[in-house]
Amino acid sequence: xxxxxLISAKGLSRADIEAVLDRAGEVAADPGAAADRHEGSxxxxxxxxxxxxxxxxxxxxxxRLGGDIVxxxxxxxxxxxxxxxxADTVRVVEGYADALVMRHPSExxxxxxxxxxxxxxxxxxxxxxxxxxxxxxxxxxxxxxxGLDDLTIGIMGDLKxxxxxxxxxxxxxxFDTRQHFISPESLKLPRNVxxxxxxxxxxxxxxxxxxxxxxxxxxxxxxxxxxxxxxxESEYRQVAGEYQIDTDTLADAREDLRVMHPLPRVDEIDHxxxxxxxxxxxxxxxxxxxxxxxxxxxxxx
Amino acid sequence: xxxxxxxxxxxxxxxxxxxxxTGGQALNVLAILGIDGTAGEVVSIGMNVPSxxxxxxxxxxxxxxxxxxxxxxxxSLIAPxxxxxxxxxxxxxxxxxxxxxxxxTGVLQCPNHNxxxxxxxxxxxxxxxxxxxxxxxxCDTIIREDLAAHILV
Lengths: 301, 153
What we know:
By secondary structure, chain A is α/β, with parallel strands linked by helices. In chain A, about 35% of the residues lie in helices and about 15% in strands. In chain A, helix 8 links the parallel strand 8 (about 220) and strand 9 (about 260). In chain A, helix 1 packs across helix 5 (about 130-145) and helix 5 (about 130-145) packs across helix 10. The longest helix of chain A is centred in the N-terminal third of the chain and has 16 residues, at about 15-30. Chain B folds into two domains: about 15-95, Alpha-Beta Plaits, CATH 3.30.70; about 105-150, SH3 type barrels (Roll), CATH 2.30.30.20. In chain B, strands 2-3-1-4-5 form a five-stranded antiparallel beta sheet. Chain B starts with 14 loop residues before the first strand and ends in a 10-residue tail after the last strand. The interface between A and B is medium-sized, with 20 and 18 residues.
């Protein structure tokens, strides 16, 4: 990639995406070959919000490339607690590492941070904004199981605040895909994402229920609907309940439908689906390591 | 400004006249330009003056100050028909129209309360100007309606 930072899926061309996925395929096929690629390099981890998968898979990826990590640690025990600005924090931390990975609760935080640092900065989630590295591993998972062209995908759940959805929907406009968006009325895609999809020439087909379009899908991408998006518990239970799937729900689905989820899930995918061939979410999570190795390899070069 | 009967604000000797401002937007124009009278400059304002072109328009005259094109282009967001006359020695020496700039910095406040630009960080708000609105360059939020309500003061 010819650019320094990865802030948004909008910064990824089809060629960029394919370069990362191709490299990830090579890494996955022969992990040992990459084992000392970045010996002596340090990756700075700045997670201003809790993370398990993203943080651990970045750490694993860096170590499997022969490098190491320096971790800011939880916000509660850092200088942020003392009121330091994000701009100051990143300017200090860039001196400790060769690249930075950052997650922060505010939208636009990664973009702003990138204006203050010269080392590569990777957005690992900015509030309800973007999460482009999750998208890369999502695309890798889709490509290895269904292919990225002539694809029909349904994206379901919290489309308003779901940063993985915003990044994925945009990145998919680089490919020959038909996207369906399934959500409660109150959690539809935000205006800015809708605008970008239109600008990219992608039709936005929105539905309030999965039934009807399910049989046409190659991939169903499920996201979690969070309790805090609703004024009260009963409304949450009622709405979220309509977007949970189990093996009965999938009776109408194609036999080769792949079900994906960025995880963590709560109860939106019933555990009985785990044992079926539909389930791809654990494979998807495992793909985080080779994909992030490939990305770091390209960005650190 | 037509004949003396229609002249509501006197001519100025040197400075800038901003004419054909969308009716009711004169105070927002001054807010954007950072002109609030505290620097002692003489400012005259006509609001909702009858206009053949606009029906009702506002007019602002700022004495002793020649505003630059880049300062004035920002006004296109709330007063796209505005015309600018630079006055020297009672004569109009330059006439300009406003053009939509590519971006506006430090003028608007992002309406997304969770946007990093609204927090205590050493950055100014930045908006890209699109055909039918503006868009925060940090969080991507689009504003189409009532830009004046988002002016930073």
